[in-house]
Write a sequence for this structure.
């Protein structure tokens, strides 16, 4: 009886699917996001206050816009403002040479393909744009499913996008692993019930990922061990 229980518990916790965050984890897009941030707040006359913007990393665009509306009285509908922010972003992100994969990304994807169901859960892009970006970088075909924060009610740090990812690939969250580079992403993955690995080259940020609940923390995707 004890042996059977152990076997069932092992099967329950087995990782069958791995869900990647996109910006800052899979693709090196943070400099472009920073440029888009500066452009958007300049156009809208918003202040640049690090005490506020430091919490934006990994957060959904609609959530970011909502904070600007609450803190600074930014006028406009959230969906329209989010579209304007993305317009600033994509005017930069699609420039030749602006994007590249993070260190170790292709090596890790090659190791995982065929062994796990692979997905992407992004707060920053609609799924069609996420596919376009991955296609431009030559890695779209590695992924079985792409879920956008726009497909759910609440973006990261809420668990919605990871719960929807698990549902779409017919897996329970306990059988999924999330890879994240931000505190908001880690909080989202853990709240969904998934195991979460944090990946960030910055030592201070790695410590923050660990404090947020990441089960393991690495410097690059190439260092990740499963």
């Amino acid at each position: 009886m004890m042996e059977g229980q152990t076997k069932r518990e092992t099967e329950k916790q087995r990782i069958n699917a791995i869900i990647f965050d996109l910006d800052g984890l899979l693709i090196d897009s943070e400099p472009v996001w920073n440029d888009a941030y500066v452009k958007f707040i300049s156009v809208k006359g918003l202040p640049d206050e690090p005490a506020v913007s430091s919490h934006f990393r990994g957060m959904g665009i609609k959530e970011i816009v909502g904070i600007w509306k609450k803190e600074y009285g930014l006028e406009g509908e959230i969906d329209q403002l989010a579209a304007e922010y993305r317009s600033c972003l994509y005017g930069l992100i699609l420039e030749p040479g602006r994007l590249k994969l993070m260190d170790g990304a292709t090596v890790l994807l090659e190791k995982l393909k065929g062994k796990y169901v692979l997905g992407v859960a992004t707060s920053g892009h609609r799924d069609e744009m996420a596919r376009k970006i991955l296609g431009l970088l030559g890695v779209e075909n590695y992924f079985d499913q792409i879920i956008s924060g726009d497909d759910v009610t609440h973006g990261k740090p809420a668990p919605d996008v990871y719960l929807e990812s698990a549902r779409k690939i017919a897996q329970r969250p306990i059988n999924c692993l999330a890879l994240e580079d931000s505190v908001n992403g880690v909080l989202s993955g853990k709240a969904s019930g998934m195991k979460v690995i944090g990946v960030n080259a910055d030592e201070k940020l790695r410590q923050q990922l660990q404090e947020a609940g990441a089960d393991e923390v690495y410097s690059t995707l190439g260092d990740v061990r499963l």
